[in-house]
Amino acid sequence: MEKREDKQEEEQEQVVNPWEVTAKDGGKIDYDKLIDKFGCQRLEEPLVDRVQRLTGRPAHVFLRRGVFFAHRDFDEILNGYEKGKKFYLYTGRGPSSEALHLGHLVPFMFTKYLQDAFKVPLVIQLTDDEKCMWKNLSVEECQRLARENAKDIIACGFDITKTFIFSDFDYVGGSFLYFWWDNYIGTHINITTYMQVVGIFGFSGEDHIGKVSFPPIQAAPSFPSSFPHLFSGKDDLRCLIPCAIDQDPYFRMTRDVAPRLGYHKPSLIESSFFPALQGETGKMSASDPNSAIYVTDSAKVIKNKINKYAFSGGQDSIEKHRELGANLEVDIPVKYLSFFLEDDAELEHIKTEYGAGRMLTGEVKKRLADVLTELVDRHRAARAAVTEEMVDAFMAVRPLPNMFD
Amino acid sequence: MVLQELGIKFEQYDHPAVLTVEAQAKYVGDKGGGLSKNLFLKDKKSRFYIVSALADTKVDLKVLSQRLGLGKGGIRMAPEEALGQLLQVPLGCVTPFALINESASYVSLLLDKEFKTQPHCFFHPLSNETSISVQASDLDKFLKSIGREPSYVDLEANPPVGKDQPPDLAILVPSGTIDIPDAPENSTPSQAVSEKSFPVQKKCTPASVDSVKSAKPSSADPNAKDKPNNAAPQPNAFAESRLFVDEILKKTTELLLSELTEDVAKQEALANSVRKHLAPDLQNLTRTFCSLLQVMFKNTAYTQGFYAGSNCQPKRL
Questions:
Q1: Chain-chain contact of A380 with B228 (C-beta, under 8 angstroms)
Q2: Would you list the domain boundaries of chain B?
Q3: What is the dihedral of CA B37, B38, B43, B45, to 10 degrees?
Q4: Which of A90, A186, A294, A307 is most buried, by CB atoms within 10 Å?
């Protein structure tokens, strides 16, 4: 995501938008303030329980641990679902690099759970055009990266009979341009002013026009009519968008425009940021390989990265640690475990013991290394089963007759 | 002999051992019909092929390699050991009839379409002290009886192969690779026994001809293409659930070995410990691994169907 040189008026405040995430004074992101500022809602426990009841299975670990912590109209989706009304999922990725790290996988892991639990179809947008414009990569390179990323996405375990993956360069250009165009132009026309877009995204006079017209491209998949081969005749179908909270501006704009186009507002379910190994100062950076665990990392590399770079909340000396216990607020291994350790009881135990100083950092780090190695190994095995033909099949414009089964 | 059982008419000619077509011609060249030359080939991924052609047909290995989708120079003569191990015939005796052997199940057979123009053709059975002449249609009968679909190919054709023209013979590439150990386990005698009676029905399906090349998880392709950069080939656990069980056993034995003791009471405690520690682990593994396994199998099957459906065109001959 592009870093902006010129600061905005709110220099003192934290900055969260699709291209920049920085906390105030290099500290932690204040999520309460963010929810307040954005105007979305907290995802409270009753809602999590409701999900559990409706789907008949335990809620995903990300819901239980508050990783996905905010939403817009998720309760509307659940209301409809209770009455037998289905919905579809929409998520995406900007394929700017070949290497995916665990932070990238988070929304996809959660989306897979949603697909399985609610038995609904999913569209995945690969914004190769966005990356082409923003990162100055060639079109061919962006398309290649899109396909490579698609393989990792598929390896998360999406059901091909219910999933459509598309890249902007491939899909938006073709015969479906007509339908997109409708929604695309519609979105354009209905944003009141250029200044509104600037306000939401922080564009300046120097940004080229492609950037300004990109937001509607990310918005259009929120409307079922953008996929005539999938949802023709189902204009009433609601859309649920799992994403990280920095994508909220796109969909705030989309929700604004939707009623004027005659559609339901898309619902959102939003996650907090996956912290970098070195600590919670923002998102992971693709340019620093030691800030993240990559899906291509071997067990040895994972162990090494955690031991060397994972920011520890433990005390400097063992005596001090036994006395004071660990600072769980800043400890990265515990944070990571809260994302990926499925067993609630074990996590509780670790937090208690580590926080009291009875468990040492080394032990926590070892547990984390085991958990992540298993995850990465599983992902790699799944990835190896993904062929070029499978990518083609996922990306083919085809009907999905069993998408609600 | 098997051919008699199948009711195939053939003429048998015994002669001193011959290693070349010219030598064979000395004994049966005047009997009319076509002599065959038989090449035993191997590609870079250890897949094997028999190319059986009329002696006069020009066979260009470079062209063949491209038409099979192996790139230029992707195919060469197979090593001598492979002859004995896979085809169980001596040197100079490559023949379509060698496919009767179980060991040759994954060897693909390419037949010269010119065979059909001849009243009959000469092949070695499993020995080069004999030549038998059969009609092409009878050769087909034999092949079908061992579960093979005969594939006739215009061996002299040289169609362009590129982005928009897929290799026309790619479908004949076998789906299984074969590992030839350096020292053959039981050294086959240089003179193969010609009067063995082999089972007519083969247990395995002729995967080489019938399989669609794409997306089979057990084939070499995904492992070769999608290998992570750190060299050691990752076993593809989805096609081989055996690995899954091995994983379970590995964990079990590790735990057991670490606490091995003679004490009976301790053994009971040990057994309980195994169950207590392994059960949740394995349940977890089963749940997440199996569900991922399931969906990947589903995706693979769908992909194969999709590929087959969208590539359903008559071959250009």
A1: yes
A2: 2-172, 234-310
A3: 170
A4: A90
